[in-house]
Amino acid sequence: MIRLEKRPTPSRLWTAVTPVFAVLATMLVGGALFGFLGADPFEAIRTIFWDPLFHPQFAAYSRPQLLVKAGPLILIAIGLSIGFRAGIWNIGAEGQYIMGAVVGAAAGLALYPSDSVLVFPLMILAGALGGWAWAMIPAVLKTRFGTNEILVSLMLVYVAQTILASVSSGLLRNPEGMGFPGSRNFKQWDAAHNAEIIAGTGMHWGVAAALIAVIAAYVLMARHIQGFNIRLTGEAPRAARFAGVSPTRIVVLCLGISGALAGLAGLFEVTGPAGQITIDFNSNYGFTAIIVAFLGRLHPIGILLAGLLMALTYIGGELAQLMLGVPGASIQLFQGMLLFFLLATDVFTNYRVRIGAKGVA
Amino acid sequence: MAETLLSIRGLTKAYPGVVANDDVSFDIGRGEIHALLGENGAGKSTLVKMIYGLVQPDRGSMTMNGSGFAPARPSEARRAGVAMVFQHFSLFDALDVAENVALGMETPPPMRDLARQIREVSETYGLPLDPGRTVGTLSAGERQRVEIIRCLLQDPRLLIMDEPTSVLTPQEVGILFETLRKLKGEGVSILYISHKLEEIRALCDTATILRLGKKVATCTPAETTARQLAEMMVGSSFAAPSARDHAKGAVMLKVDGLSLPAPGAFGTPLRGIGFEVRAGEVLGIGGVAGNGQDELLAALSGERLSPASSVLLMGADVSRQGPVARRASGLLAAPEERLGHAAAPNMSLIENGVLTAARRRGLVSGGMISWGRARDFAEEVIKAFDVRTPGPHVAARALSGGNLQKFVVGREILQKPQVLVINQPTWGVDAAAAAAIRQALLDLAGEGAAIVVISQDLDELMEISDRFGALNEGRLSAIRPVADLDIEQIGLMMGGAHDMEVAHVDA
Question: Which of A224, A243, A358 sits opposite B369 (nearest CB)?
Answer without folding.
Answer: A224
